[in-house]
Amino acid sequence: MPPGIPPLYPMGVGQIVDASIKLYRQHWRMLIRIVAIPLAVLEFLRALLLQHYVTTGVSLSPFTPQTSNSTAANLGPVLSITFAFILIQYIVVTPFLTAAVARASADLYLNRPVSVRDIYRAAMKRFWPILGALILVGLASLGGFFLLIVPGIIFAVRLVIAPVPVILEGAGPGRALRRSWNLSRGNFWRMVGLGLLVGILEEIVAGIVSIIPGIVAHFAGPVGWVISGAGAAAGVILVTPFHTIALVLLYFDLRIRKEGFDLTILAQQLGG
Q1: How many whole angstroms separate alpha carbon 130 and alpha carbon 99?
Q2: N or C: which end of the chain has fewer CB within 10 A?
Q3: How many CB atoms lie within 10 A of CB 121?
Q4: pTM of model > 0.90
């Protein structure tokens, strides 16, 4: 058990956030190493390509004059690049990093040795099931939003921990959604509160981290995009592990409340 972090027990929203922060603070170097490479490469390539098309004709500022020809010629590629990177983010990077950080969080909670290579290997083994689970969650939530919005919110909240059983229980996509739905029964508002609190903390941290690079980039001239991109990437890299840690601890909490989950069971599931 990591120092300062209590053994598994039913936790309130504040306690889950507090335990997530402590686990992150104690192992931030390892967690950052896990997420940094994929996110940094993705952000750099996106910024590089967008900068090319922006500087060749499209200004993002409403105060900069533009010609209709240059705007029309470059707006299409800019939108295409943005869409492509969003697709890569949610179909490749997000599933992989969710799997990696979830496995690392569980191993760190058990005080097991963790290496980036082993975590990446474990994440790759579960990549397709976790991608399938995330797609099913997305489709269920999207379908619910078409049914007067409220069902979509319910699906999004109650299925939010579906990726965790894929990693820690070896569940397939369908079983993972059923596990999330059953475990979250009776805990909807707790999960909403946790999601809002985690989201607010992430936005604050990412905003603070990107402020200084953004100011420097404004005065840096042609190379400003590099500084701005680095600041944006740093913010994303810093907050990405925290979100998944909170999901893993929420999963622990729900299983404790419903199934008597403890560290022995966790160790057995991870190959004890």
Answers
A1: 7
A2: C
A3: 12
A4: no
